[in-house]
Amino acid sequence: MIRLPDPKADVMARRPEIIAGLAALLPADGLITETIRMKPYETDGLPSYRQMPLAVALPRTTEEVAAVLRFCHQNGVRVIPRGAGTSLSGGALPLADAVVVGLMRMNAILEVDYADRLAVVQAGVTNIGITNAVSADGFFYAPDPSSQLACMIGGNVMMNSGGAHCLKYGVTANNLLGLKFVTIEGEVIDIGGRHLDAAGYDWLGLITGSEGQLGMVTEVTVRILRGPEGARAMLAAFDSIPVAGQAVDAIIGSGIIPVALEFMDRPCIHACEAFAHAGYPLDAEAMLIIEVEGSVAEQDALLDRIRAICAQFNPISMKVAESPEQSLAIWKGRKGAFGAVGRISPDYLCMDGTIPTGELPHVLGRITELSDKHGLKVANVFHAGDGNLHPLIMFDANDPDSFARAEKLGAEILLLCVEVGGCLTGEHGVGIEKRDLMTAQFTPGELNLQRAIKTAFDADWLLNPAKVFPLEGNPAFA
Amino acid sequence: MNTLLPTDEAGVVAAITAAHAAREPLAIEGRGTKRAMLRPVQAARSLSTRLLTGITLYKPSELVISARAGTPIAEIEAALAEKGQQIIAEPPDFRALFGATEGPSLGGITASNLSGPRRITWGAMRDHVLGIRAVRGDGEVFRSGGRVLKNVTGLDLCKLLCGSHGTLGVLTEITFKVLPQPEESATLAVDVADIAAGIRVLSAGLGSPYGVSGAAILLQGSAITALLRLEDFTESVAYRMARLREDLAPLGAARQLDAEQGLATWRAVRDATALGAMPDEAVWRLSLPPSAAPSACAALAGFRLMLDWGGGLIWVAGPATEAAHATVMAAAQAGSFTLFRAPDGLRSAVPVVPAEPAPLAAIAARVKAVMDPEGILNPGRIRL
Ligand SMILES: Cc1cc2nc3c(=O)[nH]c(=O)nc-3n(C[C@H](O)[C@H](O)[C@H](O)COP(=O)(O)OP(=O)(O)OC[C@H]3O[C@@H](n4cnc5c(N)ncnc54)[C@H](O)[C@@H]3O)c2cc1C
Ligand SMILES: Cc1cc2nc3c(=O)[nH]c(=O)nc-3n(C[C@H](O)[C@H](O)[C@H](O)COP(=O)(O)OP(=O)(O)OC[C@H]3O[C@@H](n4cnc5c(N)ncnc54)[C@H](O)[C@@H]3O)c2cc1C
User: Fold this and answer.
1) Contact criterion met (CB below 8 Å) for B298 and B202
2) Angstrom distance (rounded) from CA A371 to CA B35
3) Residue B370 in contact with partner chain A when CB distance is under 8 A
4) pLDDT in tens, A391-423
5) pTM above 0.80?
6) Do A194 and B113 touch (CB under 8 A)?
């Protein structure tokens, strides 16, 4: 179990006055303090960890957010920013002495501008909500995390979320123009704007992916793109993982960057097939889902090239979607991968390391060894084009020993990613989950430098403390 | 100026550690004779990374390359071309603009976050930097990011350093993402009556499903030409060009440039030579929402102009005077500006980039103090 810090006794003692102070800043329905009603906020996408907060504030405007943060700053109260609470790393997990500031009520699309190809939205708009607002006109917002029905753009910004299509379109950081940013002192600052690459320091880049450590975001200006004429997927199945890896190398080496290039191992194929009946080959050790874009003729031409490349690696089978419906069927299994694993195991941990793609066979071999050692099954799904690996570790939450082994196995897999030249997290963030592993990737000096940058924004370490940085050496818990 | 020329990272550390102890300011350079940039730096000595050269890792199938900061961009481009790949952001070469004899280095391009026409679709230099090694103003080495394509581990100091113009740290090694060179590139030129009409052409192109990867407007005398570029597989480019011409037909007379002409034109846009700035003129670079470009250009009547990035990047040349600078600043209200080239006198007298709001300026000062406690790295380069 990852340790949560002891609450500040003086803050706990002042709870009634803190609640009264916050209530004065928010409309009547904007503050939740009863335990039963705070229940939905006690955890996030890492439900093994739960903690009731001091209170939950649900502001509707930037001014209310600023007022709440200013009050918390003046009163030494910790703040946990929250979007939809889908973080898989425990990024939105409350602390007992902290106020959760949830932005789900700030869910308005403020503006869509096709001439400048941008949308201005409040932080609580869901990821899919942006695309839905512009899709009738042929546009979309590119980063597409699998959680896109629920997760919110403010959370995406703070996690720098990716998706299946980021090999071509980039992650959140590559698709932003501006932010409305609120400091812990309650100052409201416009970062960036409606233009590219503002002169001066790249605050937009620093804040993106900062996991709620530097301030809160209430509005986001995103780039929207015109969608392609069409897209189609194909499957290619192989009887060995290294050979599938070679096929990936050969596709990229040929100059083709598919819009998506996903990899599944045998346990994952089986779980997804049982769930989605997508026609996945059950005799394969590894399967690729490859998607291309363009007109039908362009899709055909690219898929022919890719098929010819895969054919050199003795695939067990290849299947090209003949229609958009068949593409959807191919994707249905992949997009439901987490849910599919959830059906065959009572609980699972979703890991998120990145490795150099050339290390794939070696890393998957080692994961199998580690999985045997800990006696837990692992299914692997992988953004093959960019090396972002999602091992799903199956365990039983009712069995504390099983959970302890799952956490240990997860940590060992992530350390393996770092060992082969990769990193602890490709898109889910550090949160509490990988906090204590940070020393494997960074030197003490590098961690102190990042802490000092946080301090430059949040001198008292009130914003989402106990996350990202190991507790030791963390000024909030000295 | 007396220049320190370390040959490795340890040498950079030694030089900066000594300067930090002595509180001696240093001007930070790559390969540049580029002192006519932003504000003049008050330093008796400079530190150049030009001798930190060489590609340290290149994995074509992983789309990743690393090189030391002083490596010439040309050397990196040549190594990539051998494997049919390229630097995505299309970094410019401003030799002609600045009368420099040497081409840019990786460190200089990264520290200035400079990108060419492809930026509008494929992202800026800062979007592709995956990892850095750098030396802080107190001589401590740090890394951020790594060598993999997706990485959200810890604060993204790569982006903080990109575009920081050597004021937060000295880059010693940079790792970035590359992509295959397109098989084919083609350019459509549309003659338009005015800049607003040109922006409409660029917006139609960028709002099409054809993956336009360059969108610029050139002004020559009274002739105004909107340019759109497609880069892809040969069969795709042919098909998309035909569709694009059809779609744009109502917006003006369109012609396709021949391959060589297309290449030369985009180079002239990338390097801003198409701006035609006179040697004694100042040069500004404005970044605006494209819809604000027509009125900004109208306010800059009498200046030389060139537009890139769908009309969002406006290059401006004109008199190197405070009055001209005030006019440009006013025209850039809706976005951002950089005084790109000017005599020392003007650069010391005016803000060379927009001011930050007070709370952000306070954060900036604290971040600078963290990265460079004695303020020895390029003091005064960006702001006073
Ligand atoms: C089934 C499932 C699939 C997923 N698939 C993907 C995927 O494909 N790719 C991917 O990248 N992620 C994925 N995720 C992870 C998660 O959805 C993302 O991290 C998402 O961006 C979180 O958004 P949220 O609104 O739920 O934020 P939360 O979980 O509420 O918060 C995330 C973090 O951001 C902070 N935060 C939230 N809003 C703000 C704000 N306005 N201001 C300041 N800080 C804020 C929080 O404090 C927290 O640290 C998946 C999660 C699930 C459950
Ligand atoms: C506002 C602006 C003004 C410009 N003015 C000029 C000019 O006057 N003359 C000119 O020739 N080009 C100029 N350029 C273009 C730019 O300098 C070059 O195209 C390119 O960066 C040159 O590379 P270089 O190695 O020669 O870098 P340099 O010109 O030596 O340096 C460019 C910038 O990067 C910094 N830098 C260089 N190397 C490192 C490093 N290793 N670590 C940290 N910081 C580093 C420098 O301090 C400087 O601020 C300008 C660019 C900008 C954005």
Assistant:
1) no
2) 58
3) yes
4) 999 999 999 999 999 999 999 999 999 999 999
5) yes
6) no
